[in-house]
From TrEMBL:
<keyword id="KW-0418">Kinase</keyword>
<dbReference type="InterPro" id="IPR035965">
    <property type="entry name" value="PAS-like_dom_sf"/>
</dbReference>
<dbReference type="InterPro" id="IPR052155">
    <property type="entry name" value="Biofilm_reg_signaling"/>
</dbReference>
<dbReference type="Pfam" id="PF13426">
    <property type="entry name" value="PAS_9"/>
</dbReference>
<dbReference type="InterPro" id="IPR000014">
    <property type="entry name" value="PAS"/>
</dbReference>
<feature type="domain" description="PAS">
    <location>
        <begin position="381"/>
        <end position="454"/>
    </location>
</feature>
<dbReference type="InterPro" id="IPR011991">
    <property type="entry name" value="ArsR-like_HTH"/>
</dbReference>
<dbReference type="GO" id="GO:0016301">
    <property type="term" value="F:kinase activity"/>
</dbReference>
<dbReference type="Pfam" id="PF13188">
    <property type="entry name" value="PAS_8"/>
</dbReference>
<protein>
    <submittedName>
        <fullName>Histidine kinase</fullName>
    </submittedName>
</protein>
<dbReference type="InterPro" id="IPR036388">
    <property type="entry name" value="WH-like_DNA-bd_sf"/>
</dbReference>
<dbReference type="InterPro" id="IPR036390">
    <property type="entry name" value="WH_DNA-bd_sf"/>
</dbReference>
<feature type="domain" description="PAS">
    <location>
        <begin position="82"/>
        <end position="115"/>
    </location>
</feature>
<keyword id="KW-0808">Transferase</keyword>
Length: 492
């Protein structure tokens, strides 16, 4: 390249540098004071060298300086994997990040085609398909890569590239987005399970649901989870679920071949006594417990975790046979109350990677269990309340603070003939039972005074008309209870 030509190239580049929006050939030729043909020839050479870019705007072609990054800086100062390929998909350059993951030296890779098998990440069928389909356009996609039983996810970016000699090639940028994808997946899991726990049918097996959800987050070969929870009727901790299927069958060995689900486990008593002293606060957080004979530093033996239900030698043989070296233990705890324990069994060389997500899920599950138990207790209390009223020797009618009749006991139906379907509201009850206007006013006044907790309610003597139109004198005693409900006791 002659000195005059070089000066002209420099002049063109200087003109474009001062015009970031770009210039047409006519505009450039005026600035450098050369005719269009000479200007166009030099622009074509600069474009071939990748120093200028161009695009069609209407009938004119506009040129501007290429934004170029030194290759050495591009390769070194990034955490991403970078590969430079020529037009035949041979490797021209790689950075240290790819050397680390591939295990090859740079000398072994330069000149090698990515179409060959054995090159990590970029020789997969999907990666080659993405790279080959790029053409002259930038392409962004995702690929997966499995290493040491772990799935890595990479964002792959294919960028058309021009070399100094004018040849075309491709720059491959690979960004490890495994943690981002994992975080997103975990957030979706927690959002989904939170909604499912709220909407879970009261008759559904919540403990089996907990075990299944925990196993969603475990490696395929380590889906081994059990759930122990409190039985409200007996007050015992029972094994509620053992998941998955192969683990449930294998665990029957501990009980001499009997299925463990339904077995009572005195775990709370065992862990609260000397020398463990475990309570709600200490058992709430997930703990990794290593077991002999696969580990020497044993804090809790598997025999202890099983609350000494099974012989120690049976527990140790079970661990060895099923290659279990660790148990991850987490309490189902809410507001200082232990509802149960969840255990995850894993091999000695495995680590629980999603423990924080599992811990968060089990907090949600603990709240759901507490809510379910509260609802069951309320339902039982309500049933006991109705049973008590039904067994009363006097006729009893209950009314809420909205004027709805909520219950009439058997004695009321037997004596007066009315069932709840006959008198569902206060107005219908008044019309049917007290046809006289004056009597209705007396009942309404009684209702008003009885509903005021500051006024002592008085009984009234009044004539009541039964369903078969028989009148009877009764003494009605209203009683206000804490939830605003009124009970009416009828004395003949």
């Amino acid at each position: 390249m002659g000195g005059e030509d070089q000066a002209l190239y420099n002049l063109i580049q200087k003109s474009l540098k001062l015009s970031p929006r770009g210039l047409t050939i006519t505009e450039i030729s005026k600035k450098i004071k050369k005719d269009r043909n000479i200007t166009a020839k030099h622009l074509d050479i600069l474009k071939a060298e990748g120093k200028v870019d161009t695009r069609q705007v209407g009938s004119a072609r506009v040129y501007w300086l290429s934004e170029r990054i030194p290759l050495s800086a591009f390769l070194c100062f990034t955490r991403n994997i970078i590969l430079i390929l020529d037009k035949d998909l041979n490797i021209v350059q790689v950075n240290n990040q790819y050397l680390s993951i591939s295990g090859f030296s740079k000398e072994e890779l330069i000149g090698r085609s990515i179409l060959e098998n054995g090159l990590p990440l970029i020789s997969s069928q999907k990666a080659i398909s993405i790279i080959s389909s790029s053409g002259n356009e930038q392409v962004i996609s995702e690929i997966s890569y499995f290493k040491d039983n772990y799935e890595y996810v990479y964002k792959i970016e294919v960028i058309p590239t021009h070399f100094e000699d004018g040849e075309k090639g491709l720059t491959i940028v690979l960004e490890d987005i495994s943690e981002k994808k994992k975080h997103l997946k975990n957030m979706e899991f927690l959002a989904r399970t939170a909604m499912e726990l709220v909407e879970l049918n009261p008759d559904a097996d919540i403990y089996q649901y907990i075990a299944e959800c925990v196993c969603e987050l475990l490696p395929e070969k380590s889906k081994r989870c059990w759930v122990i929870s409190l039985d409200q009727v007996t007050g015992q901790l029972l094994i509620r679920a053992v998941f998955g299927e192969a683990f449930r069958k294998a665990s029957a060995y501990l009980a001499g071949g009997r299925d463990l689900v339904g077995l009572a486990v005195p775990l709370q008593e065992c862990f609260s006594e000397k020398s463990y002293f475990e309570g709600p606060l200490s058992i709430r957080a997930m703990r990794e417990l290593k077991h002999r004979p696969l580990f020497e530093d044993e804090e809790f033996s598997f025999y202890d975790i099983c609350a000494h239900l099974f012989p120690r030698d049976v527990c140790e043989k079970f661990l060895v046979t099923n290659h279990i070296g660790k148990t991850y233990l987490t309490g189902l705890v809410w507001q200082e109350q232990i509802f149960g324990v969840v255990g995850i069994c894993m091999g000695p060389d495995e680590d629980l990677e999603s423990w924080q997500v599992i811990e968060s899920f089990l907090r949600q599950a603990s709240i759901a269990i507490a809510r379910r138990m509260t609802e069951q207790r309320l339902s039982q209390s309500e049933q006991d309340y109705h049973n008590l009223i039904n067994e009363a020797e006097l006729p009893v009618l209950t009314m809420d603070n909205h004027g709805r009749i909520t219950h009439v006991n058997r004695k009321y139906t037997d004596d007066f003939g009315y069932s709840l379907t006959d008198i569902p509201t206060r107005d219908i009850w008044l019309k049917q039972t007290f046809p006289g206007i004056q009597d209705q006013h007396r009942i309404l006044e009684t209702l008003k005074s009885a509903s005021d907790s500051t006024i002592k309610s008085e009984s009234i003597l009044i004539s009541l008309t039964s369903k078969n139109n028989v009148r009877a004198e009764v003494c009605i005693q209203p009683v206000l209870v804490s939830d605003g409900m009124l009970l009416f006791f009828m004395k003949p």
